Amino acid sequence: MALRGRLAAVSGAWLVFEDEAGFSMTPPQSKTWSPRGRTPVVRVRGRSRRRVSIAALTCYKPGHRSRLIYRPRRDDGRRDGRKSFSWRDYRDLLLTAHQQLGGPVVLIWDNLNVHKAAGLREWAAARDWLTIYYLPPYAPGLNPVEGIWSLLRRGWLSNVAFHTPEHLIQRIRRGLRHIQYSSHLIDGCLAETGLTTRPA
Question: Which positions fall inside the Tc1-like transposase DDE domain (predicted)?
Fold first, then answer.
């Protein structure tokens, strides 16, 4: 990881981590306060299996404010509908990131099979502004985006009874927008991995 950080610093690139997660209508549970003997009950509509998938990028560069870029994908409930991101979705997300960051990108992500799809590899190989590295297998502790999911689940999504998929999406967007404007939270997720944005 130190080598990758030095590579990004030397080339003036943004060090970008990617991960994706799925969120369902059933809210994550968290502890809360209540009067003694009155256990709080949150009623949810358990029939819906609709999910929202989010792909997110945390972006770091010494001397710049850390950034969070994300894209949601809603499961439309059809059996033939794709529930996860395709390689074209990742391509479009990376193009958006490149435009917003305005510089080269060193991307670090996991070994998900769609990340290694032939179409995505061919597209990436033709982009001189993009360098890709893969995390070791089973190493979520090295990816700061995992911290973003934790913040979201423990904060804006915990103990909420979602009425509709739209309600779920609204809460996800609200939480991610708050994190976007709080670069110290994004920096904290990087610090949890043991990495830093300070140049070596």
Answer: 15-168
The one-letter amino acid code at 191 reads A
Strands (DSSP E) found in the chain: 14-24, 51-60, 67-74, 105-109, 130-134
CB–CB of 93/109 below 8 Å? Answer: no
Residue owning tokens 């030397």: 10
Tens digits of per-residue pLDDT, 67-91?
Answer: 999 998 876 555 445 567 999 999 9
Contact between 165 and 25 (Cβ < 8 Å): yes
What does DSSP assign to residue 96?
H
Place of tokens 């999910």: 51
User: What is the value of pTM for the model shown?
Assistant: 0.81
> What CATH number did the domain enclosing 187 receive?
3.30.420.10
12: tokens are 């003036």
Regions in the chain scoring below 50 on pLDDT: 1-6, 47, 79-80
SS3 36: coil
How far is 112 from 128, CA to CA, in rounded Å?
23
Task: Provide the domain limits for residue 113.
Answer: 2-24+48-76+84-192
Distance CA 36, CA 8 (A): 54
What token pair was written down for 191? Answer: 């610090």
Which pair of tokens denotes residue 194?
A: 């043991």
Number of domains in the chain: 1
